[in-house]
Automatic annotation (TrEMBL):
Pfam families: Glyco_hydro_3 (PF00933). Residues 1-24 form the signal peptide. Keywords: Glycoprotein, Glycosidase, Hydrolase, Signal. It comes from the Eukaryota. InterPro entries: GH, Glyco_hydro_3_N, Glyco_hydro_3_N_sf, NagZ_Beta-hexosaminidase. Belongs to the glycosyl hydrolase 3 family. Coiled coil: none annotated. This is Glycoside hydrolase family 3 N-terminal domain-containing protein. Residues 144-159 have a biased composition (Low complexity). Residues 78-381 form the Glycoside hydrolase family 3 N-terminal domain. One of its GO terms (molecular function) is hydrolase activity, hydrolyzing O-glycosyl compounds. One of its GO terms (biological process) is peptidoglycan turnover. Residues 134-159 are annotated as: Disordered.
């Protein structure tokens, strides 16, 4: 075998450095211009569809069916039009970490790369509600009713998507859509039927939720508390995935019982809050909390002081059957103060439809450029922690 000459080696090295620099410069240029857009008062309505959809991409979480991550999603990621993905049980195969890596690589190779990974979320609550192998094996209810609930919650937290074959550093950009901070009311109700609530006692939910999220975030997994302001009062058949739900709970009770664990989580620095799709007439008789600026802007952000990222529950949820198409729902949510829309119907087209809807709404001014820029910056700040 012939060894390469020193000259050939040198030119190879120079070529690599040169092409790396060119690529880095191209990336930096595109990224800088995107950052500039976030800070400058230019009229966003005059921007190209491409630029607007790169900005909108931050706000959309996509999903796909079955065991193969579709090429279309890789292409969208490379074009910078994806904010992240949600993983379901049907996606969990041995090759998943490699698929996620190729998605991250596609994004990182594209012109919109900002140096942070795409957000990869899943529902790893514990007990029966886990998507990835590796626990937590205990349900929230088992944790909350154990001898030392906060201690049990603290040790369950980091095992979430961080454990198991896939999670040992293999999935990048981890965000858990847990813990559930709903305070259930009675045996077998919506939260209790799958033991998703830590307790009927708001203090125990607060302590467990805070311990769970703190240990999880200390282990590099972003935590999400849900379903704000609380689904604890929902009966066994009041499932927002399936149809509209109205929880006629007095505001005083919502604030003293249901919101209490969220106050703890906000004080502890939780990364994300997922509002509920139930209607709470006490504050807004018309709109589900996740489509209501009274809940998201006035209550969660202004009254409770949450400064992190809000992420929607499933855009395709039955609770929103009277709220229009997927894109209309997402636009309404973002107008109300939601940062990220969860297109979780396992259909890449749904995410794309949401993306296009956001672009159109920015263009026609129904989503304010200023609000959208602030929201995009919150998501960037979140991703910089990954
Ligand atoms: C939202 O998207 C999903 C997946 O494409 C689709 O099944 C559903 O019908 C859509 N919902 C509405 C209201 O258009």
């Amino acid at each position: 075998m012939q060894l390469p000459s020193a000259a050939a080696l040198l030119s190879l090295v120079l070529w690599s450095i040169l092409s790396a620099t060119t690529k880095a410069e191209a990336t930096a240029k595109e990224t800088t211009s995107i950052y500039d857009l976030l800070d400058s008062p230019v009229s966003w309505t005059s921007l190209s569809d491409n630029k607007l959809s790169i900005l909108a991409g931050y706000h959309v979480i996509y999903s796909w069916p079955g065991s193969i991550l579709p090429q279309r999603l890789l292409n969208l990621a490379e074009a910078g039009k994806v904010g992240g993905v949600i993983i379901f049980g049907e996606n969990v195969v041995d090759g998943l970490p490699a698929q996620i890596q190729s998605l991250q690589d596609a994004y990182a190779n594209g012109p919109a790369y900002d140096g942070t990974p795409l957000l990869v979320v899943t529902d790893q609550e514990g007990g029966e509600v886990v998507r990835l192998p590796g626990g937590p094996e205990e349900s929230a209810k088992e944790i909350g009713s154990s001898a030392h609930p906060a201690r049990a919650a603290a040790s369950a937290g980091p095992t979430s998507p961080a454990a198991g074959a896939m999670a040992e550093g293999l999935i990048i950009g981890k965000g858990n859509l847990a813990p559930v901070l709903d305070v259930y009311r009675k045996e077998g109700d919506f939260d209790d039927q799958f033991e998703r609530s830590f307790s009927k006692d708001p203090d125990i939910v607060k302590k467990c939720g805070t311990a769970f999220l703190n240990s999880q975030q200390a282990n590099g997994v972003l935590a999400t508390t849900k379903h704000f302001p609380g689904l604890g009062a929902a009966d066994s058949d009041e499932n927002t995935d399936l149809g509209p739900v109205t929880l006629d709970v007095p505001l005083k009770q919502l604030r003293s019982i249901d919101e209490l664990p969220f106050k703890g989580a906000i004080a502890a620095g939780v990364s994300m809050v997922m509002p509920s799709w139930a209607v709470y007439p006490a504050l807004d008789p018309k709109r589900p909390a996740g489509l209501s600026s009274k809940w998201i802007r006035a209550e969660l952000r202004q009254r409770l002081g949450f400064k992190g990222v809000t992420i929607s529950d499933a855009i395709e949820a039955g609770a929103l059957e009277d709220s229009g198409s997927n894109s209309t729902r997402a636009v309404t949510a973002i107008e109300a103060g939601m940062d990220i829309a969860l297109a979780s119907a396992r259909d890449v087209s749904q995410g794309k439809e949401v993306l296009d809807g956001l672009v159109a709404a920015i263009r026609d001014g129904s989503i304010s450029g200023q609000d959208f820029a602030a929201s995009t910056k919150r998501i960037m700040a979140l991703r910089s922690k990954l």
